[in-house]
Automatic annotation (TrEMBL):
InterPro entries, A to Z: GP_PDE_dom, PLC-like_Pdiesterase_TIM-brl
Recorded superkingdom: Bacteria
A UniProt-annotated Pfam family: GDPD
PROSITE patterns to which the protein is assigned, alphabetical: GP_PDE, PIPLC_X_DOMAIN
Domain GP-PDE span(s) in chain numbering: 14-235
Protein known as: Glycerophosphoryl diester phosphodiesterase
Originating organism: Streptomyces hiroshimensis
Chain coiled-coil ranges: none
Length: 237
């Protein structure tokens, strides 16, 4: 089941993807957390992007502020200015995250879109920041179709939660470079099948050495983790 015009699978390297930054040291999806993950050796940082009421893409996984910021407010009921005031500026905009470095040396961001309605604004911000070459997107089919409509050239990772392969029609419409699996689904056979179809395989979220070793042995191309240092040490052997 080859994908028309899909990129060839590269010679194997494993990308260390920091899950929402370095959340065991700094609050997730914050600039401090992103910086810490990069300093720990992450090759990319996964961040979650949602929209404020006035359409500003910001870094937040949940639909509300309750878990991380202790505020029982729904994000899309707040303007960007109100969000800044409630969190003391703690929830960064996507623009701020993209501009941590220059276009050439800034962080490679893996933008997770839990809500497809944020896709168009996120893609627009990425392009406005000159960061298209160092950003890729992940999410379910609805979100990735929205990204593909907004940017036909975007690099995407289709999050897939079953062992049954995606339908050819979906793969053709999304044209993903990656399939992104929960770590428990990954096996050498699954990786080999996707590689034969021209797809790279990423796995999330692996935090134990046992799981990391199993995924590396299976041949995955990227691992998302909350423990960047642990994964880096395994890769160094």
């Amino acid at each position: 089941m080859a994908i028309p015009n899909s990129p060839a699978v590269e010679a194997r390297t494993v990308t260390v993807v920091a899950h929402r930054g370095n959340p065991y040291r700094f609050r997730e999806n914050t600039l401090a957390s992103i910086r810490s993950a990069l300093q720990a050796g992450a090759g990319a940082v996964e961040v979650d992007v949602r929209l404020t009421r006035d359409g500003v893409p910001v870094l937040l996984h949940d639909a509300t502020l309750e878990r991380l910021w202790g505020r029982t407010r729904v994000l899309d009921s707040l303007s960007a200015d109100e969000l800044r005031e409630l969190t003391g500026g703690g929830v960064p905009t996507l623009r701020e995250a993209l501009r941590l470095g220059s276009e050439q040396s800034g962080p490679r961001l893996f933008i997770d879109l839990p809500d497809a309605s944020a896709a168009e604004a996120a893609v627009a911000e990425v392009h406005a920041s000159g960061a298209a070459e160092r950003v890729y997107y992940c999410g379910g089919a609805t979100s990735m179709l929205a990204v593909r409509r907004a940017d036909p050239a975007a690099e995407t990772a289709l999050t897939w939660t079953t062992l049954m392969p995606p339908r050819q029609a979906l793969l053709s419409a999304v044209a993903p470079r990656w399939l992104n699996y929960r770590f428990g689904l990954v096996s050498p056979e699954l990786v080999a099948r996707n590689h034969s179809d021209g797809l790279l395989v990423s796995a999330w979220t692996a935090d134990t050495r046992f799981t990391m070793r199993r995924l590396l042995a299976a041949g995955v191309d990227a691992i998302t983790t909350n423990r960047v240092g642990t994964l880096r040490s395994l890769l160094r052997g």
